[in-house]
Amino acid sequence: MSSIRSLFRSNSLIPIWLAIVLQGLSLCQCINIAGAFVGVGSVGVTNRRQTGANNGVILKASMKDAAIPLMDAGKALARSGELWIEWTALSETDLYHISSAGASIRNAGDCVAQAAASCRFKTGLELVCDELREAGTCLTEGNTQMTSFNSKSNEEANAPQLSAFVASTMEPLKESGRLLEEAGACIMRRQSVAEVGQCFLDCSDNLSLLASAIEPMALESSQRMTFAAKRMKDAGQSLKPSSTSENETKPKGKAWLQG
């Protein structure tokens, strides 16, 4: 009997039928022993699992729907930043700050793609949060670089034709970064995936504005940015509740029999 107690206390993986054969006990006796020594622990495990599900397991599973479009958006955003850098390399004007902004966009795209890869796994939600916030920080840094160039061009009257271009990109960069950081914050606060999706939708609008702003200067970069905005919108829509689920409530169980 003492060996059976130690067997259940140690949570051994030895099957119960083996214990029955070794000790010559009846099935009812083994069940009673199991209930006495592991019953409380089993309840505790169940409660922890239920608590974990209520705290965010549903959120983790729902983020998987946005994995593919968010991955496409991240790749396109990174490529747009690379093409932005290539455009600045062809110019004879000193475009260091603008080139740095392109590098920030490329880094932001890499972070978004990494977040999308982590969306596929239930245990990767913390990584999704961190990568999205890092992507937002990169875009905010890009806005800072554009602001520095705008100040420098105003002081030295250097390349005045770029002033309007730089001014038109500052606000979309800033807002895109803020919205990605907000999406990460929503995940960290365990808010609904619909709120995360809304951040993606708003970010998509700002990326579209950024693509329109850079089109006169860097057409290829603008095209990739447009595609990134489209896929970011798809990611946001995948996290929003469908109209059918909002307007129609399906009967549960045998409720359809009631008339």
Uncertain segments: 36-58, 243-248
Identify the overall geometry. Answer: elongated
The mean pLDDT is 78
Distance between the termini: 58 Å
Tell me the fraction of residues in β-strands, as a range: under 5%
Largest sheet: none
Helix content: over 70%
Q: Please give the count of helices.
A: 10
SSE ordering:
HHHHHHHHHH
Number of strands: 0
Structural class: mainly alpha
Mind telling me the C-alpha Rg?
28 Å
Write a structural description.
By secondary structure, this protein is an all-alpha fold. Helices cover 79% and strands 0% of the residues. The chain contains ten helices and no strands. It has helices at residues 2-9, 16-23, 27-62, 67-89, 96-118, 125-156, 163-188, 193-214, 219-239, 243-247. α1 runs parallel beside α3, α6 (125-156) packs antiparallel against α7 and α7 runs antiparallel to α8 (193-214). The radius of gyration is 28 Å and the shape is elongated. Residues 36-58 and 243-248 have low confidence and may be disordered.
